[in-house]
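PROTEIN DESIGN WORKSHEET
SECTION A - STRUCTURE
LENGTH: 97
TOKENS:
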């Protein structure tokens, strides 16, 4: 089933709720993620000043500042309790079977 060419270039109504209009409206909204920088965060920049390259490091606002340490669950992979000491056996033994 093909769509006739005369319908492909029609403009959508202002209150159109088709998937194309919904996708366009959804992608135009700003993301509400913590990782999305705001207008107070400054990206890194490189400029040529007097024949020398000047690098300005990025900076974050207090809300987007990354933690200095990883989350706590990364520091301990498996905690099996207190370690069991190794006690060597010096007496000979026989397998019973």
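SECTION B - SEQUENCE
RESIDUE ASSIGNMENT:
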């Amino acid at each position: 089933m093909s769509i006739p060419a005369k319908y492909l270039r029609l403009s959508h109504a202002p209150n159109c709720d088709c998937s194309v209009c919904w996708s366009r409206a959804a992608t135009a909204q700003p993301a509400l993620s913590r990782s999305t920088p705001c207008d107070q965060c400054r990206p890194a920049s490189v400029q040529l000043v007097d024949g020398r390259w000047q690098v300005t490091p990025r900076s974050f606002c207090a809300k987007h500042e990354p933690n200095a340490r990883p989350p706590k669950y990364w520091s301990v992979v498996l905690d099996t309790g207190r370690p069991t000491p190794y006690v060597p056996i010096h007496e000979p033994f026989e397998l019973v079977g």
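SECTION C - NOTES
The chain has a mean pLDDT of 76.
The two ends are 77 Å apart (CA to CA).
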